[in-house]
Design brief:
The protein is of the alpha+beta class. Helices cover 32% and strands 41% of the residues. It is built from 4 helices and 7 strands; from the N terminus they run ααββαβββββα. The two termini are 23 Å apart. 27% of the residues are buried.
Length: 142
């Protein structure tokens, strides 16, 4: 299952994080593939200052979180750099790129997520601004 989880996560991230707005639009139309996410999935946002500590539950919560991320940005992409780990505990490492909607300020910052799977589905994920913190939280730091 470990390599299967890595492949599944890679596909999910390529679908959702390369264009957050497109994901939100697809989800609102009912076209977004959320089959990798358990229906009771929990996401904890630890990144954006005005969202830190917020928890989102279920597929609807994931869409709401994505909308909140995208609302302040004119552009927002979070390309995947690598996936670390195996089995049911993975960390994805990214480089977030965005341009603020109202100020035009551009951001290019590291970002990471811890992912917990059960029976091939994501049951929990959490964002981190520092990839090393994510690796440590997942027990994958060196």
């Amino acid at each position: 299952m470990s390599q299967e989880n890595v492949g599944s996560l890679r596909a999910l991230l390529e679908q959702t994080l390369l264009d957050i707005r497109a994901f939100v639009d697809a989800a609102k139309r009912g076209d977004a593939d959320m089959s990798l996410l358990d229906s009771d999935v929990v996401y904890e946002d630890m990144n954006l200052p005005d969202h830190i500590g917020e928890t989102y539950r279920g597929h609807e919560g994931i869409v709401r979180a994505a909308e909140r991320w995208a609302e302040a940005s004119e552009t927002l992409t979070i390309p995947l750099e690598q996936i670390v780990g195996s089995g049911d505990h993975l960390v994805s490492i990214h480089q977030m790129r965005s341009r603020a909607r109202h100020t035009g300020i551009e951001f290019d910052i590291p970002l990471a997520y811890t992912w917990t799977f059960r029976d091939g589905k994501v049951i929990h994920f959490q964002s981190f601004r520092d990839p090393d913190e994510a690796l440590e939280a997942a027990g994958l730091s060196e």
